[in-house]
Amino acid sequence: MTSTEPRLIPKLMGARVKRKEDPRLIQGRGTYVDDVKLPGMLHAAFKRSDIAHGRIVSIDTSAAEAMPGVELVLTGAQLAQHLPPQPVMTPFPAPPHHAITPDVVRFQGEPYAVVIATDRYIARDAADAIVAEIEPLPVLVDPEAAMQPGAPQIHEGFANNVAIFIPAGTGVDQAAGTVNNAAIEAAFAQADVVISQRMINHRLAPTPIEPRGIVAHWEPGKEALTIWASTQSAHLFKGFIAGLLGLGEDQVRVIAPEVGGGFGAKLIYGEDYAISAISRMLGQPVKWIEDRSEAFMTTSHGRGILGYIDIAARRDGKVLGVKARLIADIGAYETLFTAAIPTLTNGMLSGVYDIPAIRAELTEVFTNKTPTDAYRGAGRPEGIYFIERAMDMLARELQMDPAELRRRNFIQPHQFPFATQAGNLYDSGDYEKALDKALEISGWESLKAERDAARAEGRVVGLGMSFYVEICGVGGWEHASVTVQKDGRVVATTGTSPHGQGHETTFAQMLGDQLGVPIEHITVLHGDTAIVRQGTGTFGSRSQVAGGTVLMMAGEKVRDRMASFASHMMDANPADLAFENGRIFVKGSPGSGKTFAEVAGYAYMGAGTAAMSGMAYPPDAQPGLSEEAFWEPGGAGTFPFGCHIALVEIDRDTGELELRRMIAVDDCGTIINPLIVEGQVHGGLAQGIGQAMVEEVVYDEDGQLITGSFMDYAMPRASDFPMFEMDKTVTLSPHTPLGTKGVGEAGTIGSTPCIVNATVDALSPFGVKHIDMMLRPERLWAIINTNGGQA
Amino acid sequence: MSTRVPVTITVNGKVRTAEVEPRLLLVHFLRENLGLTGTHVGCDTSQCGACTIMVDGQSAKSCTIFAVQADGCNLQTIEGLAPEGGLHAMQEGFWEEHGLQCGYCTPGMIMSGVDLLNENPNPSEAEIRKGIDGNFCRCTGYQHIVKAIQYAAKKG
Ligand code: FES
Ligand code: FES
After folding, report:
1. Domain residues of chain A, as ranges?
2. Does the beta carbon of B38 lie under 8 angstroms from any beta carbon of chain A?
3. Which one of A37, A500, A710 has the shortest CB-CB distance to B47?
4. Is the pTM of this model over 0.80?
5. Alpha helix segments (H runs only) across A131-207
6. What does the DSSP assignment read for A44-90?
7. Can you tell me the ipTM of this complex?
8. Is residue A110 very low, low, confident or very high in pLDDT (cuts 50, 70, 90)?
9. Is the CB of residue A480 less than 8 Å from the CB of residue A670?
10. Closest by Cα among A622, A637, A674, A513 to A578
11. Which ligand is nearest to the CA of B106?
């Protein structure tokens, strides 16, 4: 625990408050992008490449143009005259990436033309009527083949298809560009045991159930563009659109209405730029809604990192060093954060352990596949997967209980803030406490006995654990405003942009406690750049840390103003005032005092009106009760953590993997709404377990996406899971006033290695030391049934 | 374009008549023609269940049905599940148990939950999980959805 003392007496905070968002959503009254309908609105459909790599020779749009109802057909080359290539948000070099390709298609599904029509069925028919001649080019799907000298080049200027190469960790001075191998080599030289393993953290499709979509409405004369978009950041979206279209930010308003999930994959895409530019050309509103098939092909994929991992340790279990050669298969282009995501993997390789020497070498490679970008966890699950698999292999090699091995290597509470050799500065942690809790609630020792008894009966049962840490709260500044209205009710805006996380509720709980106002009197607005003055958005589990903190700062300022007006009204010292239940009163006499509406009414009078009513206004005071704040978290981030334990069983006859128990102990610092935090962990667990057990993006050797629909890409279903058994520890972050740390990605990060560790344990009697995901029944069956099913 | 076909469909108790293209999906008829946008579209292969409604008292995926096939049918959508101003026990359960996050799967999930309890008023946890396997939720991990349905079952 740190010394940060919560300054508030929590009443709403910490309570299982039902969500304010829900009444509209459970009645089907929410407005998602596809629900927006404007007079004169046209519909777009994109023409996409069937092949993974080819040069466009010719495009015949005449049949499409001739169809009744078709208003406009544009090829990529035509659009490129109005629209420069898309920007990225990383400092790394990126090849040009047009919204619609003008010359070469580099992955299946890349658009090369667009149709605008009066109806979405007509638009689709017309897109189908476009005929193109595309000369096939050699296709690269395997990143290790793509980075070989002599491989065909996907982009000019990127030799061997390498986008970036980054060494990191012990002995690497990135600023000076020097690398010193002495420490890492010494670590490996001293080791009693070295384990080396190639591991794949495979590609996934983020798959929010609402596909992407946009309505763009340019109003000629007004010279203004209003956009409704399914995005995780209305403000980033606005800035990018204004920049690429050459507009002032004041000319663009972006509304993220209800957003049906994001998971990192909904920021901004080529289609958004194209539709915005076309609306401006036509002076009419244009809508585009992604099909699910398009989503699989063109919404960014996640993960896709191959690791060659070496771990060196003493026989007593002390880890001395970790080496990781990472190859990220980033697909055909760099989108907003593509190149930055795998660098987060480098940074997580220390896990929760005090490892004296770590070296990572990351190569990001172009292939003819959908670009990768953020997906829940974004680089961090890959890093934790590699280190947690390596720790598990080490425990097995040393014949040590995996809990004990972890315990021996934990960073200790007194070591925080702790600078890892992987380059992160961890804020706080008490890992042993979370481990002990997980062991206790799972009944670890009896689970082991249960597993052994099942094995004795010939069943294939395994027990696994993982311990994760993650970074939250990065991504720069955030903005908030808090206004006490004339009627005493409170309206706040947040620059974070929720899409299921329940900010309207959580943030209202925080303000309710801070201002002493019933939650029913508080409205939190978000996701509209005309209402929310500034913002950064919701990604990287940053909303509570960045958005929650800055909201409290704005709230504090308003509270101070309220106190000064109230003290004048009541002739009391501001420091003696209490705020409770929508009233302000002198501490100790709650019966007296003023209501929020009374104080607000007074504050909004101004000196002139007050004088006319015979009231004295505070000298030098200006009217109003509205404040805003900007805040940038201190760069280093907050580091929530947790321990997951899984018990799995594999059916001998079918190879089917059943998750029988899933125990999760998470520590995300102070919890504002346990109901919402549980929901976040559940969802994260399901996605992490999904990666291990059912989900995988698969391409064939021609770059054809095999998993292009829900028929082929397995989504986790309700019957795939048992009831998750959850508990928590609370370690405060010193970086945030309430000690919050963030939770959005936690479950996703810990659960994947946990399932694989349990599965390897189940298969260990068959000699298995490692198995790559995803854990297909036929592969498990084959392992069990070679040697006639004998262990 | 193609010839239009007259249909008469009862939706949430109101009789609606329209002339539609034979290829118009029922979900688009509800959303575009009637403005009932609570029924969502999440896929193009009839898997996700976001479009689930009641057709003659049984749950059905409205993206799998042409509007012309629903001629003469009695439909109920999320907007018509509870009397104006009130909530159905299933809606209440989703609110009480935090059975939704982004809310996109929710209308379909609620309709499937209602259908499940119509057929089996006292389902076990496993039966609930099996019963909603045709509905995907990417946000919740399903646990609170299971609890929401249990809540509604208990309320009866
Ligand atoms: S929209 Fe997915 S099943 Fe109907
Ligand atoms: S609540 Fe988002 S998909 Fe279910």
Report:
1. 4-8+475-522+529-631, 33-137+207-298, 141-205+301-370+377-400, 425-474+636-791
2. yes
3. A710
4. yes
5. 143-146, 182-190
6. EEEEE-SSSSEEEEEEE-HHHHTSTTEEEEEEHHHHHTT-PPPP-SS
7. 0.97
8. very high
9. no
10. A513
11. 2
